[in-house]
Amino acid sequence: QIAPCVTLKVSRGADILYLYRRPILDLWADEGDDLNNLIRQIMIGELGEALEFSESDIDEMITRHYQGLFF
User: Exposed, middle or buried by CB within 10 Å (0-12, 13-18, 19+), for 36?
Assistant: First the structure.
């Protein structure tokens, strides 16, 4: 444990994150959200999965990002 409520997570595989442009642009066109926010949400989700966070933890991280707690 690094600090209270913070646990060290180590990736289980490659240290490369691939984001595929076409699906992101399609989602952006369909949703109409801000592209920067959409990419940040995708990156948080993908990194969270790579570091084996639970779905609820990932959802909380994404929610905190939208509240302006992550930059």
Answer: exposed
* Cα(29)–Cα(10) distance, integer angstroms: 34
For residue range 44-71, list pLDDT tens digits in order. Answer: 888 888 888 899 999 988 888 766 655 4
Please state, in angstroms and rounded to a whole number, the distance separating the CA atoms of residues 69 and 13. 28
DSSP-derived secondary structure for the chain: --BTTB-----SS-S-----HHHHHHHHHHH---HHHHHHHHHHHHHHHHTT--HHHHHHHHHHHHTTS--
Please give the torsion angle defined by the CA atoms of residues 2, 66, 35 and 38, in that order, rounded to the nearest 10 degrees: 60
Predicted TM-score of the model (pTM): 0.69
Alpha-carbon distance 36 to 27, whole Å? 12
